[in-house]
Write a structure and sequence with these properties.
Distance between the termini: 39 Å
Oligomer: single chain
Shape: globular
Helix content: 25-40%
CATH architecture of the largest domain: 3-Layer(aba) Sandwich
CATH superfamily of the largest domain: Alpha-D-Glucose-1,6-Bisphosphate, subunit A, domain 3
Number of strands: 19
Structural class: alpha/beta
Strand order of the largest sheet: 1-5-4-2-3-6
Largest sheet: 6 strands, mixed
Number of helices: 14
CATH class of the largest domain: Alpha Beta
Length: 458
């Protein structure tokens, strides 16, 4: 009897589930058939680069996936177990039609999944990913139609990737960096590259640990106590923590304070783009300091939807200089379009190499405003109906209302963002304002308005 596939594993930006419960090797073979079919029919192509993160289940899943892809006649270049950036770099440099990376990113070790990118590193948008989903759920592939089995070859993702970083980054000063890999995939690239670039490495959890037993794979502030302590004890110029696959990094300044993605992006915009002027993209959850700090310098800050896929799509569309995602994804298209977290600390080191100021001093130049996030319970069956009702009423009530992604209402003294979760029965409310009192007032007002809408529909 064929195991029923759970549709909920197909998310807006990737595929994720618990290994042995939601996903297994047979399912990944079918996803491979679907992905190969997609390459041949939608992209009119015949090549794919595939890699996987350090999780124990990744080895089983990636080989099942590759078997499915090859069955469709698509040729696979396998990068083996690498960091996210190494596989994306290899696929980009070898002009593959599609790139796939088996990972569950920042989730616990029992989870796994897969991400898809076009050959230029732009994330597969939801409507394209849904075609792979539909092929899988409906089993829309006929193996008998495939003329031949695709080849499977190994590709060294590490040597040319490291050479690229050596070509792009040079340092004159001795810069000491505490690097927290969390035992995850960045243990396979970051420590070696930092040392070979001449940076003084202070390793934190830099030995491979597929179970993430020493530090969770999500680099939230509560998980970075060891890193912040070591940065201060070892008098490091800064620290960096990576997530499970290596598409997000969190920067810690020389005083052990954790920077937000907005602050990191602003510092890069102000000091790391070599006087260039152009478009900076920032999602609707980003702080108003991004526009306040970068617009006067000649940058055109454009708001985009939340989600790292949109970050890559708009970076390409707008020919942007910088992309900032509030969750920690940042893009520097001068190097490539995908969100390889390694370039962010290297760019910070480059900035420090060129200034006499410390990172904490650069950060102190950026104002900080009170923020607050609230989760409002709302059934999956009604949350989008609630959002539709709120959009209608708020666009009539408030002049500066943006419905690009959820509902963002801007005021002179702050803003409010209301978004329905794609994966949970909640509506999220985020607000930022110039004082705590204003934040509390925004939260009270818009929580009540949202709850009233929920009550009217339930």
């Amino acid at each position: 009897m064929t195991k029923e596939i759970s549709p909920h594993i197909f998310r807006a930006y990737d595929i994720r589930g618990v290994y042995g419960k939601d996903i297994d090797a047979m399912l990944f073979f079918k996803i491979g058939l679907s992905a190969g079919t997609y390459v041949k029919t939608n992209l009119q192509g015949n090549t794919m680069a595939v890699g996987n993160d350090i999780r124990q289940s990744s080895h089983v899943l990636v080989h099942a996936f590759i078997s499915g892809v090859a069955t469709t006649g698509v040729d696979v270049s396998y990068t083996e177990t690498t960091s996210f950036g190494q596989t994306l770099f290899a696929g980009w440099k070898t002009n593959k039609d599609l790139i796939a990376f088996v990972t569950a990113s920042h989730l616990p070790p029992e989870w796994n999944g897969i991400k898809f990118y076009f050959g230029d590193g732009v994330g597969l948008p939801e409507d394209e990913l849904n075609q792979i989903r539909d092929n899988t759920l409906q089993q829309q592939w006929n193996v008998e139609d495939f003329a031949h089995v695709g080849s499977v070859t190994y590709i060294d993702a590490k040597e040319k990737y490291e050479s690229f970083m050596k070509e792009k980054f040079h340092f004159l000063k001795k810069i000491r960096v505490a690097v927290d890999c969390g035992g995850a995939s960045m243990t396979l690239s970051a420590p070696n590259i930092f040392k070979n670039l001449g940076l003084e490495l202070v390793p934190v959890y830099c030995d491979p640990d597929p179970l993430f037993s020493q530090r969770p794979s999500d680099p939230k502030p509560k998980n970075l106590g060891t890193l912040t302590k070591i940065v201060k004890e070892k008098q490091c110029d800064f620290g960096v923590a990576f997530d499970g696959d290596g598409d997000r990094s969190v920067i810690v300044d020389n005083q052990g304070s954790i920077l937000s993605a907005d602050e990191t992006g602003i510092i890069i915009g102000k000091h790391g783009l070599n006087g260039k002027k152009g478009v900076v993209i920032a999602n609707v959850e980003c702080s108003k300091t991004v526009s306040e700090q970068l617009t006067p310098l000649g940058f055109n800050v454009k708001k985009i939807q939340v989600g790292h896929t949109f970050l890559t799509l708009h970076a390409k569309k707008e020919n942007a200089l910088l992309g900032i995602e509030s969750s920690g994804h940042l893009i520097l298209p001068e190097y490539f379009l995908f969100d390889d977290a390694l370039v962010i600390p290297l760019k910070i080191a480059e900035i420090l190499d060129a200034t006499d100021k410390s990172l904490s001093e650069l950060r102190s130049e950026i104002p900080s405003y009170p923020t607050k996030k609230v989760e409002i319970p709302c059934d999956d069956a009604t949350k989008f109906k609630v959002m539709k009702q709120l959009k209608k009423s708020f666009t009539q009530e408030y002049e500066r209302t943006n419905t690009l992604d959820g509902i963002r209402i801007d005021f002179e003294e702050g803003w409010v963002l209301i978004r329905a979760s794609n994966t949970s029965p909640i509506i999220r409310l985020t607000t930022e304002a110039e004082t705590k009192e204003l934040v509390d007032n925004f939260v009270k007002t818009f929580t009540e308005k949202t709850q009233n809408a929920i009550n009217s529909i339930s």
